[in-house]
Amino acid sequence: RQIQGLDSDMQTLVYENYNKFIAATETIRKMRVDFRSMEDEMEQLASSMSSITTFSSQISDKLRTRRQDVARLSSAHSTLQKLQFVLELPNKLTESIQEGHPAQAVEDWLRAERALTHYKDMASFAGIQ
Q1: In 29, 70, 94, 113, which residue has its Cα 20 to 30 A from 51's Cα atom?
Q2: Element holding 120 (H helix, E strand)
Q3: Using CA atoms, how far apart are residues 108 and 90, in angstroms rounded to an integer?
Q4: 86-111: b (≥16 Cβ within 10 Å) or e
Q5: What is the pTM of this model?
Q6: Which tens digits make up the pLDDT trace of 57-107?
Q7: How far apart are CA 104 and CA 113, in angstroms?
């Protein structure tokens, strides 16, 4: 009897372990499928990132010259504003003095003098000073 009981217990253990083995095998099979799917998605993602990097580089290259142009134009605009102030200076000085604001006239003159000193090497400003 004891042998039959042990035999029965062994069959039960084998059956339970077999079911666990089958379940583990099925889980591994599902994981393999999931990983393959994930690998495909990762390859697609890598390809997309490569395309994005290429497009970004192309856009950056195209905009580089425009950025340089904008910087040059901004510098020219700033210079023109300074020069506009110098051109308007005689009228501003007269107006400030007539309105009784000599301090403003002196301040405007000093500002214009800095601009004229800065551009004194340009031929068109040599006669102004």
Answers
A1: 70
A2: none
A3: 10
A4: beebeebbeebeeeeeeeebeebeee
A5: 0.40
A6: 999 888 888 888 898 899 888 878 877 877 888 888 899 999 998 999 999
A7: 14
